[in-house]
């Protein structure tokens, strides 16, 4: 019933102006993330151009996969002649964080028709999640349409395709691009994503735990140290979210 009402609302003529504003607002609020990820796309394209894949393979991967970290890891595994099973399993685990993103946003999009939820899920990235969550969490679940989310996702998708192409075209002519330290811009982008979210003890505990463990476990093969740090960080965040733990901590503070 709720989805049928939402279908009518989304197709109503009076809604067209509002949805255009939402689209542009989502794209506008994603601009800082786009600037930060720009060098990341160029470096990815450059690595493809200097690696074992054909140029069109790299562009196709950006078009279909649309997951920067997974694409970088896949490139490294392909260059190392890893098996398809290893490539598939590693990228699957790396992208498992999107399950957490989806669970966080689910209450705000569950009222949408399935075609919308599938489309938005396909556009979900770290940057899009940060922008969409900052927008949605200020409003009651089910009260916001999909267009803000869509504007952010489409902006990031087009950005990734454009700069992948730039990296592919210039990678062969300027093979030293990846050694200029441009990838530091992506580190800054992720800092900008994480820091504004640290508004509670559970978030801070999860971030500090994952950050510390990823540093100490960085020498593990196949980035397994990073994955292990993520899982432990999530576990700490969940533990700190348990009501009993929060009540205990509150009573200790009151003493």
UniProtKB/TrEMBL annotation:
Q: Where in the cell is it found?
A: Cell membrane
Q: How does it sit in the membrane?
A: Multi-pass membrane protein
> Pfam families of this UniProt entry?
AzlC
Q: Please tell me whether the keyword Membrane is annotated for this protein.
A: yes
Which GO terms of type biological process are on file? L-valine transmembrane transport
The protein's UniProt keywords, in alphabetical order, are: Cell membrane, Membrane, Transmembrane, Transmembrane helix, Transport
List the InterPro entries. Answer: Brnchd-chn_aa_trnsp_permease
Q: Which family does it belong to?
A: Belongs to the AzlC family.
Q: Does the keyword Repeat apply?
A: no
TM region(s), chain numbering: 30-48, 118-136, 156-177, 184-204, 224-245
In its UniProt entry, what is this protein called? AzlC family protein
Q: Name one GO cellular component term.
A: plasma membrane
Report the principal subcellular site: membrane
